[in-house]
Known about the structure:
Elements: H1 4-24, H2 28-32, E1 35-43, E2 46-49, H3 51-63, E3 70-81, E4 85-95, E5 109-118, E6 121-131
Parallel strand pairs: 1-6
Antiparallel strand pairs: 1-2, 3-4, 4-5, 5-6
Amino acid sequence: xxxxxxxxxxxxxxxxxxxxxxxxxxxxxxxxxxxxxxxxxxxxxxxxxxxxxxxxxxxxxxxxxxxxxxxxxxxxxxxxxxxxxxxxxxxxxxxxxxxxxxxxxxxxxxxxxxxxxxxxxxxxxxxxxxxxxxxxx
Length: 137
């Protein structure tokens, strides 16, 4: 009997990889291709409510301040919630042309991705990020 969690995790990884590739290509449509229609994205100071709002925001970003950028992403964990839900935690940052592979500045964030399996397909239902704060040592 196949391990469905391994297969589900691979499918989620593929969705994330496609999202990162779309960002690097400046492709807003590709960025939201695996988002649910009612997806939300919350970043400090903003709420993008719905796939189309997220797409519009990304398109504007790719035409302006995000042009030529890519992302750094490090998955910190994944946990499944029931049979049709998953939460991925990652450390991410925007990489602008000329940036090192792993930016070491204030652009790093902790991110939460909420996935929902609909009709056998894993989709991003919600995304949230918050600036990475390093505790004082």
